[in-house]
Amino acid sequence: MSYSVIKSLLLPPGILILLFITAFLLVRGVLGRLVLFAALSIFTLMTLSPVATLLMEPLELYPALGIAMPIPSAAQAIVILSSGRITNAPEYGGDTLDDLSLRRVRYGALLQRQTGLPLYVSGGKLPTEAQPLAELIAEVLRTDYGITVAGMESNSQTTWENAEYTAQLLKPAGITHILLVSDAWHLPRAVEAFANTGLTVTPAPTGFVHHPGWQQELTYRNWLPSARAFQLSYYAIHEHLGRVWYQIRSWQQGAPAPAAEV
Q: Domain extents for the chain?
């Protein structure tokens, strides 16, 4: 047995799968075994990289901008959507951006340098948080990339609100066509929400999980349980459920409110 196999079985989530199996063998009663088997099966599948990629693949609808798809000349601005934060990071003396937000910022900065378009950022805060995510993004863009944002939307807490409040910021400035930066798997939900406000949206995806032909590149290591695969499965399931919820919400309440025309 190779080192990589031993390591994947002794570290989470592998060790948890082994404990699930042990519990299944020890438990008595049909119902208890059924529940344990269901939990073991779902948990194990979520920790496998091919399963996580399969869950992500139908979400990553849009190709890389500027590579597989040209950047439209009609675009008037770039909008970066926030993801999350690291709270009280001691090395930064306070809150800072999490990895998902940082990779969106990096790609947004690249697009801004390629196009020269004004850059807008979107993201609010919870009541217990001191600084909106939009301000954290603007700070990173200024200090790390030398880019000053053209505007910040700092009241949203969901993708739905990102769209609604950002449209209210952009429309008075005469901006109707944007490049929307987010993770590839998040963009289907985000693009739909922004398009429903009346904006023309060109998706600008980053953080791709899958690529053409990925199935042919699988090795036995890809079938070992991993924490990263479990996290990707979580994101994918969250997005699939989020798209369903937004569809239900739009039926009940209508789409995110369009901004008033100037």
A: 64-208
> Is 262 exposed, middle or buried, given 0-12, 13-18 or 19+ CB atoms closer than 10 A?
exposed
Report whether CATH 3.40.50.620 matches the domain 64-208: yes
Q: Is residue 13 reached through a cis peptide bond, with omega within 30 degrees of 0 on the bond before it? A: yes
Q: How many residues does the chain have?
A: 262
| Bridge partner residues of 178 (DSSP) | 77, 201
Round to whole Å and give the CA distance between 58 and 200: 22
pLDDT in tens, the chain (262 residues): 576 777 777 777 877 888 888 888 888 889 888 988 998 999 999 999 999 999 999 999 999 998 878 999 999 999 999 999 999 999 999 999 999 999 999 999 999 999 999 999 999 999 889 899 999 999 999 999 999 999 999 999 999 999 999 999 999 999 999 999 999 999 999 999 999 999 999 999 999 999 889 989 888 888 999 999 999 999 999 999 999 999 898 888 776 766 544 3
Tokens found for residue 35:
């529940």
Which amino acid is present at 190?
A: A
State which amino acid sits at residue 221. R
Q: Which helix (H) or strand (E) holds 238?
A: helix 227-253
Phi, psi at 176, each rounded to 5°: -125, -10
